Every structure is written in C-alpha cells, then in structure tokens.
C-alpha cells in the first residue's frame, strides 16, 4: 500500500480521539492509500520555551509507546530531528519529497510561535504541491467561543455558559483510532539522546494506564472533587494533567468519562466541577489565540507594565529552593522540584506569595514553573500566573493576597503535607508547624521568614493602588 498521507503529531501523542489521525486515515482508506506518522524532535526549541526535563522525559516515553501501537496497525512512525522550529520547513519538505508524500495532516496549535511554525511549514510544502490539512485544536470545544457580539470573552463565567451551550450542539463522541492498514510492522527501537529523567512511577508513559487513571478518577473521585480538591495531602485530584499536556489523553475522552459516570449516578454532567476545570483549560488556550501578545511575555492588563517589581535575587532563590521560611510555600516548592508537579491550590498560593508578597515579576515565576512542571502547558501556566499576579484576564482582584499561614492552617490542618516535603519540621505539633517560633526554627534547622507578611501585603496593594491614578 502506497503511503501518500502523513500525520504530523506534536502535543497530541495518541491514536484515540485524534482529529488529524482520524481524518487522514478515512481519506487515505477511501483512496486505497496508506498513512504514516511523523514526530518532529526539537530539543533546543523546547529548552528555549523553558520546557522541563520531566516533560521531555515523558514525551520520549510516550513517543516510544505510540510507535509500538502504530506498528501493530501497520502504520510507520518517523522521527525528524531538527533543533528548532526554524529548521522544520526544509526538513519536513525534504522528508515529504523523499517519501512521496502528497498530503500533510495536523491538529492546530494555538500559541503564536507554534502558529508561525505551522504557517512556515505549510508555505514551504505548498511550493512543492504538497497539500496541508489543518484540523481542530486539542480543546473540548474547538470552535471559537464568542459572545453574541462576536467578541472574545474576557471573563470566565460568561465564557463557561456559552461554552456549555456550544458543547451541547456538537458531537461529543471521541474519535476512534485508525484501523489496521497492513500487517504489523517490526516493533521499533527508538533511542533518544535528548531523553531525560521523570517520575515514571507516578506517570507511566503508557496510554492504556493514562486511560485507566482517567476512568478510575471519574468512578471514584470525581463526585467528591468539589469538597476534596483543595486539600493537598489528599489524593483527590486527577493528576492527569501531564497526559493532557502532551496529548496522551484527548479532551473528549475526559468528557466521555465524566458524562458516563454522571449518568450512572443520575447527576447532571454539566454541573461537574472537574468539567469546569477543563473549561478553564479551553478558556486560557483560546485567549492565547485571540490575544497573541500573551505569547510574548506581556500582561493582559497593559497598565500593569508600570509596576516596579522588586526582584530580589536572594528571595527568588529561596522561593525556588523551598527555603522561604513559610512551611506551606516550601513544601509546595519542594513537591514541584522533586516530582515535577504541584497541587493546584498550592500553585495559586505559591504564585500569590511570589507576586504579591515577594513582589517579584510574574514572568520569572512563570518561567521557573515551566522549567520544572511535567504538565507545563504554556497557555494554562501563563493564565494561572497572570491570574495570581492580577495582571491577566479575569484575574484575582489585586487586593486579594493569600495569607500563606492561614492557607496552611485551613488546607493542611494537621501539617501532614508539610511533614512529607519539609521533614525537618516533622516533630512539630499540628499548631506550631504552620509558623514555627524562632526557637523551633533554630532547633529544626529551618530558616526565618524571608519577608514580613503584613507590611509586604500592604506594599503590594499600595503599588497596585498607584496604577489607578495614572
């Protein structure tokens, strides 16, 4: 069978619920042709985008398991090595010409650099009469979610209402994997020089395990998500974000699991709080497309460019290393550094601490998170940091400043989470562990707080207040 159709996979490393792979397979089958799959490897570009070693490691593992799955279907997977996006137009064109490819299929990426990459590749291929087919972005609702006036939403709540309306009008069934097109191919042997270490014990690079984790979460935890999700010591969240970030799971697969579970329990699936969290993911990714300057390290609220961030390097280092003297902040940062993942509430608390109390530039915190997160998604990470810094779309009010000690007392009452990641405090009682006395800190070898909460909070509010007079 002659292969004339090539599917280009990026952060959508899966067979199930993959629009480009599904559509290419249907068209090729109708013409009695075959498909191939290509993955472009750009490690220098990933590094320039601050992607973590953990994410790079998981990506390598997922490519290997995907190659085996495709080989069983008689579909070859090819690797194109190109250090940066700029090298891809020539590399992709050369590959297509060498292999007799007539059609390239891919799913849309939304950040501006990725869009520029795709445009350059398509432009080069068109010069050689190679057709390109762009499919939906990896969103639950892939179409633009606009207001009745045809404008992009800047506040999540009305976006979510409209998003639910559009969701009810579309086909929500996950797309099937492509059918076998030939006898199984030899199992590929892929060795990547750029492969990095990641916590494979927590996130195995296995699509079947990812799907199993999804259904177990929906069956056992989704119904309790609202009341349990804020407590970091409890295993109450899905922890599926690394698989979503690299596309090992498709968004409609998550939707299917939510709908099935809620129907079984006679609950309205539209009321699922976890579904709402997935809608936030769509919201931030659509914002990235509608407002390209968000991809350029610029705040959504342009007036906040006038803020004079303190950017104390010693405090920045203490925050990165989990040595700020605030136990819940340090526990969260050490969780990030040790596992590549951080509980969602703690992402808000640590980002608020960074931007409002250390009064450090949110872009430095955003970049550090990306450099560590196994689930680092540019749009979601940017949206979360700008929300915390009160510089973004539908952001937290600037006068809302998390009190880290109060957050700790509320959401880690017994201090068990702190004890897990800040073991030097493990002997303290449940009251004092949230804010040890100077004597206790000395005995435990734990630092004094890098800032004084009350004056730091007032200084941040005053700095934002000054903007109103400009």
From TrEMBL:
Q: Any note on cofactor binding? A: Binds 1 FAD per subunit.
Please give the SUPFAM superfamilies that the UniProt record associates with this protein: Cryptochrome/photolyase FAD-binding domain, Cryptochrome/photolyase, N-terminal domain
Q: Which EC numbers does the record give?
A: 4.1.99.3
According to its UniProt entry, what is the function of this protein? Involved in repair of UV radiation-induced DNA damage. Catalyzes the light-dependent monomerization (300-600 nm) of cyclobutyl pyrimidine dimers (in cis-syn configuration), which are formed between adjacent bases on the same DNA strand upon exposure to ultraviolet radiation.
Q: Which InterPro entries match?
A: Crypto/Photolyase_FAD-like_sf (IPR036134), Crypto/Photolyase_N_sf (IPR036155), Cryptochr/Photolyase_FAD-bd (IPR005101), Cryptochrome/DNA_photolyase_1 (IPR002081), DNA_photolyase_1_CS_C (IPR018394), DNA_photolyase_N (IPR006050), Rossmann-like_a/b/a_fold (IPR014729)
Q: Which residues bind FAD?
A: 225, 237-241, 274, 277-284
Q: Which NCBIfam families match?
A: PRK10674.1 (NF007955)
Q: What PANTHER family does the annotation carry?
A: CRYPTOCHROME (PTHR11455), CRYPTOCHROME CIRCADIAN CLOCK 5 ISOFORM X1 (PTHR11455:SF9)
Q: Which reaction does it catalyse?
A: cyclobutadipyrimidine (in DNA) = 2 pyrimidine residues (in DNA)
Q: Which family does it belong to?
A: Belongs to the DNA photolyase family. Belongs to the DNA photolyase class-1 family.
Spell out the Pfam families in the cross-references: DNA_photolyase (PF00875), FAD_binding_7 (PF03441)
GO MF annotation terms: deoxyribodipyrimidine photo-lyase activity; DNA binding; FAD binding
* UniProt signal peptide: none
In terms of superkingdom, the source organism counts as Bacteria
Ordered alphabetically, the record's keywords are: Chromophore, FAD, Flavoprotein, Lyase
Its source organism is Marinomonas primoryensis
Give the positions of the site Electron transfer via tryptophanyl radical. 309, 362, 385
* Needed cofactors: FAD; (6R)-5,10-methylene-5,6,7,8-tetrahydrofolate
| BP GO annotations | photoreactive repair; response to light stimulus
Q: What is this protein called?
A: Deoxyribodipyrimidine photo-lyase
Residue ranges constituting the Photolyase/cryptochrome alpha/beta domain according to the UniProt record: 3-140
Protein's UniProt keywords contain Flavoprotein: yes
């Amino acid at each position: 069978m002659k292969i004339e159709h090539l599917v280009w996979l990026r952060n959508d490393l899966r067979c199930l619920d993959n629009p480009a792979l599904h559509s290419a397979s249907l068209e090729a089958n109708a013409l009695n042709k075959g498909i191939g799959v290509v993955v472009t490897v750009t490690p220098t570009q990933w590094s320039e985008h601050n992607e973590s070693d953990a994410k790079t490691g998981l990506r390598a593992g997922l490519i290997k398991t995907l190659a085996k799955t495709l080989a069983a279907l008689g579909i070859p997977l090819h690797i194109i090595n190109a250090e940066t996006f700029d090298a891809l137009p020539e590399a992709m064109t050369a590959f297509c010409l060498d292999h007799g490819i007539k059609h390239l299929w891919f799913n849309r990426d939304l950040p501006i650099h990725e869009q520029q990459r795709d445009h350059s590749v398509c432009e080069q291929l068109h010069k050689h009469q190679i057709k390109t087919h762009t499919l939906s972005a990896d969103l639950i609702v892939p179409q633009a979610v606009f207001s009745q006036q045809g404008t992009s939403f800047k506040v999540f709540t009305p976006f979510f209402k409209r998003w639910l309306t559009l969701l009810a009008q579309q086909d929500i069934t996950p797309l099937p994997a492509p059918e076998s097109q030939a006898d199984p191919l030899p199992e590929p042997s892929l060795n990547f020089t750029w492969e990095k270490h990641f916590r494979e014990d927590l996130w195995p690079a296995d699509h079947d395990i990812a799907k199993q984790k999804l259904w177990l979460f929906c069956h056992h935890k989704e119904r309790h998500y609202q009341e349990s999700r804020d407590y970091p010591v409890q295993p109450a969240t899905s922890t599926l974000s690394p698989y979503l970030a690299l596309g090992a799971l498709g968004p409609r697969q998550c939707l299917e699991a939510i709908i099935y579970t809620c129907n079984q329990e006679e609950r309205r699936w539209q009321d699922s709080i976890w579904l709402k969290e997935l809608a936030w993911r769509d919201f931030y990714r659509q914002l990235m497309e509608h407002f390209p300057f968000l991809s350029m390290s610029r705040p959504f609220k342009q007036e906040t460019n006038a803020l004079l961030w303190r950017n104390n390097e010693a405090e920045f280092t203490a925050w990165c290393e989990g040595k700020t003297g605030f136990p819940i902040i340090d526990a969260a940062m050490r969780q990030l550094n040790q596992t590549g993942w951080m509980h969602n509430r703690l992402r808000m608390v640590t980002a608020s601490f960074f931007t409002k109390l250390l009064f450090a530039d949110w872009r430095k915190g955003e970049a550090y998170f990306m450099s560590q997160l196994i689930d680092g998604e540019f749009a979601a990470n940017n949206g979360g940091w700008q929300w915390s810094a009160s510089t973004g779309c539908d952001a937290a009010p600037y006068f809302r400043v998390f009190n880290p000690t109060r957050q700790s007392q509320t959401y880690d009452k017994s201090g068990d989470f702190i004890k897990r990641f800040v073991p030097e405090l493990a002997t303290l009682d449940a009251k004092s562990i949230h804010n040890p006395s100077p004597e206790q800190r000395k005995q435990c070898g734990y630092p004094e707080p890098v800032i004084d909460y009350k004056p730091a909070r007032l200084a941040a509010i005053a700095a934002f207040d000054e903007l109103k007079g400009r």
